[in-house]
Amino acid sequence: MSTTPPLHYLALGDSYTIGEAVAAHSRWPAELVQRLRRAGVAIDDPRIVAVTGWTTDELAQGMDAASLTPAYDLITLQIGVNNQYRGRAADEYRGQFASLLARAITLAGGHAARVVVVSIPDWGVTRFAHEQGRDRSRIAAELDAYNAIARDESHHAGTHFVDVTGISRAHPDLVADDGLHPSAAQYALWVEAIEPIVRAALR
């Protein structure tokens, strides 16, 4: 009797992908895997290449250091909040994001449909931003511009795009103890949006 080998999943990103301030099992890539398994999908634990604070260029360096070997059956990419936080130009983000997306497609064995881009949530609605006196409307506008770039590049490359920004804005109180990063409850809401797209990508 033959058994189907489990799918290999690579999650690329920053603090949101690594699940800053939540338990490892509450990270959204881990929660996604658990939901897929409950749906009968044989899939390995996610290989996560993500560090809190990473920008697009730092993720690229992290990927270099990780010695990643294709082909992965599923890749998720969520990056850019720290570019915005540091005041980097949108044009720079576009070029570096497009390069990361091309690398992700290569790591997926050239199958663009196996790559799922997840939008940047809006940290401007959080308690941290309020306590810091940050300009909420400016943060929202800048993140909208970044997410528009990510969506555009995703569509151009033939990958999938999932918008979780609206979820972050609708649930500003679902944050971890640091007042900034999403709580496990918010990540669970993200996975509700991400899972159907991933299921379609895996078909």
* Largest sheet data: 5 strands, parallel
Q: Roughly what fraction of the amino acids lie in strands?
A: 5-15%
Measured as a percent range, the helix fraction is 40-55%
Work out the helix count: 9
Secondary-structure-based class equals: alpha/beta
Our measurement of the CA-to-CA distance between the termini, rounded to an integer number of angstroms, reads 23 Å
Number of strands: 5
How much is the radius of gyration in Å? 16 Å
Strand order of the largest sheet: 2-1-3-4-5
Structure description:
The chain has 203 residues and is α/β, with parallel strands linked by helices. It contains 9 helices and 5 strands; from the N terminus they run βααβαβααβααβαα. The protein has helices spanning 15-18, 28-38, 56-66, 81-85, 90-107, 127-131, 136-157, 165-170, 184-202, and strands at residues 9-13, 47-50, 74-77, 115-118, 160-162. The chain has a 5-stranded parallel sheet, sandwiched between helices. Helix 2 packs across helix 9, helix 3 (56-66) packs parallel to helix 5 (90-107) and helix 5 packs parallel to helix 7. The model has no long low-confidence stretch (mean pLDDT 96).
